[in-house]
Amino acid sequence: MVKVRAARAAEAEALTGLVMRSKAHWGYDAGFLAACAPELRIRPDEVTARRIVVAEDPQGAVLGVASLEGAAPLATLGLLFVEPAAIGQGVGRLLYRDVLRRAVEQGVRRLVIDADPHAAGFYRAMGAVAVLADVRGATPGPAGTMAGGGPASTAAGWPGSLVRFEVAPAPLADWARAWTGGGRAVHVGNVAEFNVQFADSSLDREQSAAHHYSCLAAFYSPLPSALVLPRAVPAGWTELVGRQLGWTGVEVYDDLVERGPGLAGAVRARPALAARLTGAGEPLVPWGLTRPFALLTGRPWRPGELRYESKAAAHGLFERILADGGHPGIVLPSQVRAATRWAAARLLTARARAGKSTVVKSEHGVGGSGTTVVTAGQVRAAGGARAVLRRLPRGPLLVEEFVEGPTDPGAARDLTYDGFVDPAGRVHEVGAALMDVTEGAYRGATVGPGAVPEWAEKPLLAFGAAVGRELAASGYRGWFDVDFVVDAEGRLAPTETNLRLTGPAIAFMVAARLDALRGAGHLVRIADRVELGARLPEAQADELCADLARACAEIGAVFVPAIPTGAFDPAPWLGVLVAAHSPETLDAAEALVRSGAAAVGALFAAPPPADRSAGSGTPVAGPGQVLSS
User: Fold this and answer.
1) What is the pLDDT of residue 371?
2) pLDDT(528) > 60
3) Integer Cα distance of 397 and 578 in angstroms
C-alpha cells in the first residue's frame, strides 16, 4: 500500500528529478523545461518550510511529491507531481487528500491551486472549483510552482494558460463526529428487520424492496469499518464506493440472510462474525432499532422508544409542541383515527362532497407506502368512498386533511429535518433537506448549502429540535427525522416522524464525508430510483457505474452508486448519489446519470447470444470480502 510521509532534506535532488520527469510528461520542449528548472528545483533547506511530503510504495520507491505552502488561513498547493510510470494509479489523489487533511489541521480555510491546463481535469475531479481560466505570470507559492504542471514564470514564457482553482479545507462536521465518535463504525443493514416489527399491512411481507434499501448501509456513517448486508452485493460496487469516498479496508459481510428479514439474528447465528463485529470496540450502527439488534449488541430493548414511529402518535406529539406556542409559521393538518372502515368511508365522503382532497394513511409505512392522496374526483369516479378504501391496505386508517401546496410548481413542497439523540440524551441538529415526493411516494432528497429555501430554515430547524427534545425525554436514542409539507401560504405542516436512518440521512452522511475529503460546500442528492434501459449482467453494471463516475468527475461532480442490486430486477434500476459544489453542476450530473442509465438499453437492442444474456445477474460477492482502494 502506498503511504505518505514527510520528505527529507537529503532527498531534495532526487525529488527535483521526479518533478522534472513529471513536468516533461506533458510534452513540453527542452527549452521550456530548462527555463522552468530554477523554479521547479527543490532545495534541501526548504523541504521543511514548504511542508513537502512524498508518496512511497512498500519497497520504499518514491512515486510522488506534494507541498502545502503559506500560512493559515490562506495557503497554496505549491507542488503536486507524480512519477510518470505511476500516473493513473491513485498517487495524485492520495497526495492531494493528504494536503487537504494537513491544511485542516493547520487552520487553513482557503487553498489556492494554480494548475497546468493538463492537470485541470484532475483538480476538477478532486472537487476544487475553478475561479480563473488564465493566471499567467502569477506566483502564488514561495517557489512559484504550479501544482501538477510547472512554474508561473514570466521569464520562461508560459506556452499555455494556467487554471486557478480554490478549495475550502474543512474538518468533519461536529454532528458527524458526535454520531459515531469521529471514528469508524460497523454498519448493519437491518432495514427489513426494522420494517417487519410493525406488522403493518402496507409493507411487503417478503421485504424485497427493503433488502435493496439495505445497500444504503454503506453510508450509515461517514467512515465505515464493516458493512453487514442481508443479500449479496457486487464486488465492483464496493470497490467503486470506496474509491469515490476515500475508504480503505472496509470489510463486507453480505449474503447473510437466505430468506426473511432476520439480519441481526443471522449474525448472532455466526458466533465468530458476531464476536468480530461486536468486539472491535467500534459502534454498531443499524438502520433502526429492533429487538434482534439489541440482543446482538447487548443494548437494552425498550420497544416504547419507537412509539412515535406511529403516524398517529407523531401527530399527537406535534399537537402538544404547538400547544405551547413559540412556533410561528408551523401549522398542523387535522387528523382523525378511523375506528372502522365504515367510519373512514364517512369521513372521506364528507370531505369529497365539500370538494376537498384527503390523505389516507396506515399507522406505519415507509417511503410513502400506506399513504394515499384521494381527490374528490377520484371518489366520484370510483363510485364512492367505500370503493376507494377497498383498494387500500387493511388495518387501521388515519384520515388527514390534505394540505394544498404553493401555486408555483417550482416552489419547495416537501422538506425534512434530520437530527439524532445521543446516548446521553443530547439532541444534535444535522440539518434540513429538500425532498422529492411524487404522488405521496418519496423519490429522493437534496442536502447542502441553499437546498432548502432560506425562509423555511429557521422555523423548520426550531420545530425539528423541539421534536428531538420530546423524543429524548421519551427515552429514544438514535437518528430521527421530521417531514413537512409547505402549504399555499408558505407555512410548514409537519406530517410524520421517522425513528431511524432515512434517505436524506444518507445524503447528509455523504456530504459530511465529501466536505472533509474534497472541501466544504457540497450539495448531495440521493435519487432512490434511476431507471435502467436494460437488465445488465454484473460486469456490465459495474462498467456502467465506472463510466458514470468518470463522466461526472469531468464536470466537477461525484457519482456514487447507492443501491446496485436493483439493476438485476426484471424492471432494472439503480439508487444513486450525486454531489457537486453548485446547483447547476448537481442538476447536470443527475441528468447525465439518468440519460446514461437509460441509454444502456441501446446496447441490447438486438437479442444477445444465449451465453451473454442478461440472465439473473446474480451477484457473486461473498462474506468477508475486503473493500480496498
Assistant:
1) 83
2) yes
3) 37
Q: Which of 46-60, 207-221, 451-465 is least confident? A: 207-221
Distance between CA atoms of residues 156 and 93, nearest Å? 29
pLDDT tens sequence across 552-598: 999 999 999 999 999 988 899 999 999 999 999 999 999 999 999 99
In this structure, the number of other CB atoms found within 10 A of the CB of residue 482 comes to 28
| Residue partners of 226: CB distance under 8 A and separation at least 6 | 186, 187, 250, 251, 252, 253, 276, 277
Region of 236 please: left (phi>0), alpha (psi -120 to 50) or beta.
alpha
Helix pair 538-554, 583-599: axis angle to 10 deg: 150
SS3 labels along 51-67 = CEEEEECCCCCEEEEEE
Task: Say if CB 573 and CB 567 are below 8 A apart.
Answer: yes
Question: What number is the average pLDDT over the span 58-66?
Answer: 97
What DSSP assignment string belongs to 476-496? Answer: --EEEEEEEEE-TTS-EEEEE
Q: Residue written as cell 455523504?
A: 510
Q: Rounded CA gap, 337 and 315, in Å?
A: 11
Instruction: Check: CB of residue 254 under 8 Å from CB of residue 235.
Output: no
pLDDT on residue 143: 31
Asked if omega into 286 is within 30° of 0 (cis), the reply is no
The residue to which cell 519497497 is assigned: 59
Contact present, 556 and 127 (Cβ < 8 Å): yes
- Supply 581's cell numbers: 459544489
**Residue 133 predicted with pLDDT over 70:** no
Going across the sheet that includes 427-438, the strands are 492-498, 478-486, 414-421, 427-438, 441-447, 523-531, 573-580, 558-563
Neighbours of 105 (CB within 10 A): 11
Mean pLDDT of all residues in the chain? 89
C-alpha cell at 210: 427493503
Q: In the structure, what pLDDT confidence band is assigned to residue 1 with cuts at 50, 70 and 90?
A: confident
Distance CA 578, CA 585 (A): 10
Give me the residue label for grid cell 435493496. Answer: 212
- The angle at the Cα of 49, spanning 47 to 50, to the nearest 5 degrees, equals 70
SS3 category, 242: helix
CA distance 285 to 627: 19
As given in the structure block, the three cell numbers for residue 525 are 442528492
- At 238, which helix (H) or strand (E)? helix 235-245
Which H helix or E strand runs over 394?
none
- In this structure, which amino acid lies at residue 60? G
Given this model, what pLDDT does residue 258 score? 81
* 450 Rama class: left (phi>0) / alpha (psi -120 to 50) / beta: left
Helix or strand run (H / E) with residue 47: none
Q: How far apart are CA 143 and CA 618, in angstroms?
A: 55
The pLDDT of residue 200 is 60
Secondary structure (DSSP) of 314-376: HHHHHHHHHHT---TTB----EEEESSHHHHHHHHHHHHHTT--EEEEESS-STTTTEEEE-H
**What's the full length of the chain, in residues?**
629
In the prediction, which pLDDT does 604 show?
61
**Dihedrals phi, psi of 6, to nearest 5 degrees:** -65, 140
Residue 189, pLDDT above cutoff 80: yes
pLDDT of 44 reads: 97
Residue 489 C-alpha from the chain's centroid:
32
> Residue 479 and residue 503: Cα distance in Å, rounded?
12
pLDDT for 176: 97
Cell of residue 343, nine digits: 367510519
